[in-house]
Fold:
Amino acid sequence: MLLSNVTSTHPAIFLLMGIPGLEHLHVWISIPFCSAYTLAVLGNCTLLFIIQADAALHEPMYLFLAMLATIDLVLSSTTLPKMLAIFWFKDREINFYACLVQMFFLHSFSIMESAVLLAMAFDRYVAICKPLHYTTVLTRTLITKIGIAAMTRAVTLMTPLPFLLRRFHYCRGPMIAHCYCEHMAVVRLACGDTRFNNIYGIAVAIFIVVLDLLFVILSYIFILQAVLQLASQEARYKAFGTCVSHIGAILAFYTPVVISSVMHRVARRTAPHVHILFANFYLLFPPMINPIIYGVKTKQIRERVLRLFLRKDV
Structure:
């Protein structure tokens, strides 16, 4: 039954609409989505295998990269399988509690990814600005603490959301105008005063994006100052070249976030499917592109990948 139990404050299930207005194109849209997800899974699993198998890569930069790959796998796998089920089989039903779990994982791991990108900026700052202290500063203990801190921050900030959403009565029906259980898409179905949810969601987004991005920018200001002080142009290129992959990962993660945020506020009359496509792009693009960026631009990773796939010819 699709109807809510009258004695319950929430429906037993929600119905995910997919991409409203483009339902007739769901099968075609699923092709790039499925391709991107396949690349994300293969690329990130390959990165994790290479880093785990090669002791020479058990260094801070690659340990942070392993964290990033793990987060990308969870982030994409939280939403894409259900999305593809909607596109291919019209399987729109999602249990209320499963919806809350999906939302929790989605937003928590997005926050973790932002934290790991910040940690990677710190790694590049120490490597370039304090090279003699690199191994003494970025110890295994500190890296573990950074990972735990990133997880704790995300879980602490996102734990209130499921409990806040449980208290609402959902009188606007079970239809979620989205491909997955995004916080504000669920809030729009709730009756009563949702101002706290709105304010809390915006505050967390601003806190994470602004704070993390500010520290990333500060790190690169110090890095740029250190690079410009190097004597030779070749040394400058080499030093800054170690940051190219990380800059690419930052752009891949934050650019869709900023564009989507601006569109929600500036282009409010834009068709809903445009906003949803941008939201999906934000979830799909970083997990897909990060392994490619690091595989192409990082010599050590590139060499291991070639060795892995060309082993028979060596």
The chain has twelve helices and three strands. Residues 1-8 have pLDDT under 50 and may be disordered. The CA atoms of residues 31 and 84 lie 9 Å apart. The longest helix spans residues 96-129.
